[in-house]
Design brief:
It is a single chain. With 341 residues, the chain is an alpha/beta fold. A ten-stranded parallel sheet has the order 8-11-14-17-20-25-28-31-34-37, with no helix packed on it. A ten-stranded parallel sheet has the order 10-13-16-19-24-27-30-33-36-38, with no helix packed on it. The protein has a nine-stranded parallel sheet with strand order 9-12-15-18-23-26-29-32-35, with no helix packed on it. The termini are far apart.
């Protein structure tokens, strides 16, 4: 188990230490469950009353909340960010793979960087280039001529198709599939004719892709995921989609082909995007939205109906079904009004 003294942690976080710096911190816990050896954080001042009962060895707080702390404290400008950085420092997640497993298959012409690890039953095909310290978990498949940048990690059973390019310091969770065929077909008198997908997938640096997410290769040009993008579990990114830097996409989102999403966007879970259109930079789309036309202005966009009681929903649905009839009646009343003037 990783541990660190509070003084050393304060130095790493550039935090202001209040209390005993020799205290050892070995875990992060919620404010209501934290105990000896734990550190917690308060990011929203409206919950500061809970500090009085907190049993943590230390708390990360803003300056305005320091007076309410009964324990050791680290004063930081952003407690939630401090929590994230502390979690990295104390992280005990095992490596995806260690060394080269005897059961792994690596083609003779694969270019291996220094410190590469490949897990049991993984397959790395001909022409692949693996950068320094790449970790490939058990059961992964890396297809011909793929390139994986230094420090990138693939958890178990990830599939990287041929000619896909993955940047440096990327993290791909189990079951993800990158470079599968896009959904391209032509119809010949009712029969579907497959269109070979000859593009690839180009992924930048520091990209994270969630478990069982699929990113399709381009039909002709490439599917492109820029630096710093984070994609949650079970998302579908279709062929020729382009996603800008540092955009975040929550789980179960579906993006149709040739969609272009800008930089620094936030996409809520289970959202659906029409293809062949553009979403500009700095857009937030709330969960379960259906985006059917381009978005050219930054801002927050929503659709869908939040959950309500079944009785309320049934009443609303019944009224919605009568909207056309109500519209016609309203137009009739307006015409009668105009004729009476």
């Amino acid at each position: 188990m990783a541990s660190i003294t509070l003084a050393d942690l304060a130095e790493k976080l550039n935090a202001e230490l209040h209390g005993d710096g020799s205290v050892t911190i070995s875990a992060i816990a919620g404010m209501d469950k934290a105990g000896d050896g734990d550190i917690t954080f308060l990011s929203n001042s409206k919950y500061r009353e809970h500090l009085e009962h907190c049993q943590a060895s230390a708390v990360m707080v803003k300056e305005a909340d320091l007076a309410h702390c009964r324990s050791n404290a680290l004063v930081v400008s952003d407690p939630y960010l401090a929590y994230a950085l502390t979690a990295q420092i104390l992280d005990s997640t095992p490596r995806c793979a260690v060394d080269i497993a005897p059961s792994a298959y690596i083609a003779p012409d694969v270019q291996l960087g220094g410190g590469v690890s490949v897990g049991h039953n993984a397959v790395v095909e001909s022409g692949v280039v693996l950068g320094d310290n790449v970790e490939i978990g058990a059961g992964c498949f890396v297809g011909k001529n793929a390139k994986i940048g230094a420090g990138s990690r693939l958890w178990a059973n990830v599939t990287i198709y041929h000619s896909v390019q993955l940047g440096e310091q990327c993290l791909i969770q189990s079951g993800a599939v990158i470079g599968s065929d896009g959904f391209g077909y032509a119809n010949n008198k009712g029969k579907w004719i497959k269109i070979p997908q000859v593009g690839s997938v180009i992924i930048g640096d520091r990209v994270e892709i969630g478990a069982c997410t699929t990113i399709d290769r381009g039909a002709i040009d490439d599917t492109v995921i820029a630096d710093g993008v984070i994609i949650d579990n079970q998302c579908q990114i279709a062929h020729n989609v382009s996603i800008g830097e540092n955009t975040a996409i929550a789980g179960a989102t579906v993006m149709a082909g040739s969609l272009k999403v800008g930089k620094h966007c936030y996409i809520g879970g289970a959202s659906v995007f029409q293809g062949h259109m553009e979403v500009t930079d700095g857009v937030t789309v709330t969960g379960m939205s259906m985006v059917m036309k381009p978005i050219s202005e930054p801002g927050v966009y929503s659709s869908g109906i939040p959950a309500q009681s079944n009785r309320e929903w049934r009443k609303m649905a019944a009224r919605v079904m009568k909207i056309d009839e109500m519209h016609k009646r309203l137009r009739s009343v307006e015409k009668q009004r105009d004729s009476d003037k």
